[in-house]
Design goal:
By secondary structure, this protein is mostly beta strands. Helix content is about 10%, strand content about 40%.
């Protein structure tokens, strides 16, 4: 047996070797760790108020951006989380940028945090300065004397057609509806960056009493002021229905009291959210009130049943139900007068590039159809974040009736029911394209006609264009409405005007 002194000496030696070995391993790990895992070194923010977009630029130097990357970006507005986006890689091994649609106003504090998939994060914060309302400022200036200042000669129309100002000084003119008596009601919506402004926007009624095809100031009534973006308007049985972001209200016996209407009746409370929260409404052949419920995001899955749908209800707001699902953001629909079937526009998701996906015209001949959002776009493109599973297929979704083009922003649409336009336009669909906000080369800003044969879309063509000149827009069509004489009205929220397009045979 060894003596206790010898055993103690060996134990100390062994312990010393173990400690040294452990220390060496620890030192090696600490030397490798900064190379393997580190937080992003820089995050910078830039807010574009014109396009309502936040650019988040991150520097994260890595050797393999598919295994070591920024996997999450979170954005807070005034301390409240408004965006969470996760990724499975980063675009480059060093510096890259992501753009996010975001409503922000002067004084808002925006904070973005980039998280490394292995360890650490980096944050940056900015305060939004003066918002660049160049589009709306130009519109406000033009609205004071639109008839004289707007370059209507730039608008190209088919032979025999002409365009003129029907009404002006209508701040943020959007959706329109016409009563059987000929009263035109006009809804409004503020620009996206001031959508939540406390002073709201107004609601208009126009009666062309002298039938000269132009509304003088005395023929324009402000029904209500300071409403929460009353974008949607519909008329039925003497009452005007108005869709705000958070409510549907009703003005009874409205045409007898345009100057001093009674307090409206609330018929339905709606979810309050800003992104795609402006509502479009209309009465169907079944007598029900239909409302487009846009998705509260660019692209995401929702737990609530009403998001990203077209819903319908009784005129008193009761028995609300979903008519169509998978509808990202429809701001225009109408029923084919020949079949009674619903057609609607839908705006495709953003941030997939200049040319993907296409915006859509859709056909819903029956209740219960699913049009694909958020997992499927343009009928055949799985979403890279939500529909990219190899087992996923778009075959179970209803494809578009017609693809209108990427980011053209189709809003209002109507079947032409008049007799003034030539025969080839009767019963066809007119669509107002508001125009792209996030495309390198702008497109849209025009009216198009979609041709139908046997209840099927077979093609489309430009009907009116010229609001976009050399990449800069001076006007933005929103909605279309046929008048009793067969001429067509077009609203423009950029200039606060309504145009009238008429046809004069040669």
């Amino acid at each position: 047996m060894l003596s206790k002194d010898i055993e103690s000496t060996i134990a100390k030696a062994s312990s010393s070797k173990t400690i040294k070995a452990f220390a060496s391993l620890l030192l090696l790990f600490m030397m490798i760790l900064p190379v393997m895992a580190h937080p992003p070194s820089l995050v910078s923010l830039a807010y574009d108020s014109q396009n309502q977009s936040l650019k988040v630029t991150t520097t994260h130097q890595v050797s393999d951006p598919t295994s070591h990357y920024v996997f999450r970006i979170e954005v807070l507005k005034n301390g409240e989380k408004v965006i969470t986006k996760e990724y499975t890689s980063q675009p480059t091994p060093s510096t890259f940028s992501y753009d996010y649609p975001l409503n922000a106003s002067k004084g808002d504090i925006l904070k973005a945090t980039a998280y490394c998939v292995i360890a650490g994060s980096k944050s940056s914060e900015i305060t939004v300065g003066e918002t660049k309302l160049s589009v709306q400022q130009a519109g406000a200036a033009n609205a004071t004397n639109a008839k004289a200042s707007l370059p209507l000669d730039k608008i190209l129309l088919p032979p025999g057609f002409k365009i003129e100002i029907y009404a002006d000084n209508l701040t943020f003119a959007r959706s329109m509806t016409l009563s059987p008596n000929g009263t035109l009601f006009v809804g409004t919506r503020r620009p996206f960056e001031t959508l939540d402004a406390p002073n709201g926007s107004d609601l208009y009624a126009i009666v062309d009493k002298n039938n000269n095809n132009h509304a003088e100031a005395s023929e324009i009534s402000v029904i209500a002021k300071g409403l929460n973006n009353p974008n949607g308007v519909a008329f039925k049985d003497g009452s005007l229905y108005v869709a705000l972001i958070n409510l549907i209200i009703r003005f009874d016996d409205i045409e007898s009291q345009l100057d001093r209407p009674k307090e409206p009746v609330t018929i339905k409370e709606l979810p309050q959210y800003l992104m795609h929260g402006w509502r479009y409404i209309g009465f169907g052949p079944d007598g029900k009130l239909y409302v487009a419920m846009g998705a509260n995001c660019n692209v995401c899955q929702h737990d609530d049943e009403i998001n990203a749908t077209i819903a319908c209800m009784n005129p008193d707001g009761s028995e609300m139900e979903t008519f169509a699902r998978g509808v990202r953001n429809s701001v225009g629909f109408d029923w084919d007068p020949a079949t009674g079937e619903l057609w609607f526009t839908d705006n495709g998701r953003d941030l997939l590039g200049n040319d993907v996906p296409s915006d859509e015209l859709n056909h819903a001949p029956a209740k219960g159809l699913n049009f694909g959002f958020p997992t499927c776009h343009s009928g055949s493109i799985p979403d890279p974040d939500l529909g990219s599973d190899k087992n996923y297929t778009c075959n179970t979704m209803v494809p578009p009736a017609w693809m209108l083009g990427p980011h053209v922003a189709p809003l209002g649409m109507r079947f032409y029911t008049g007799m003034q336009f030539p025969e080839k336009y009767r019963g066809q669909i007119f669509v107002a394209e508001h125009g792209s906000w996030n495309r390198d080369t702008p497109i849209g800003y025009r009216l198009v006609t979609v041709r139908l044969q046997n209840n099927t879309a077979v093609g489309h063509e430009v009907f009116a264009e010229g609001w976009l000149q050399n990449g800069t827009a001076w006007g933005r069509p929103v909605d279309v409405q046929t008048l009793k004489d067969g001429s067509m009205l077009v609203s423009d929220d950029m200039n606060g005007v309504i145009y009238r397009i008429s046809y004069i045979p040669s």
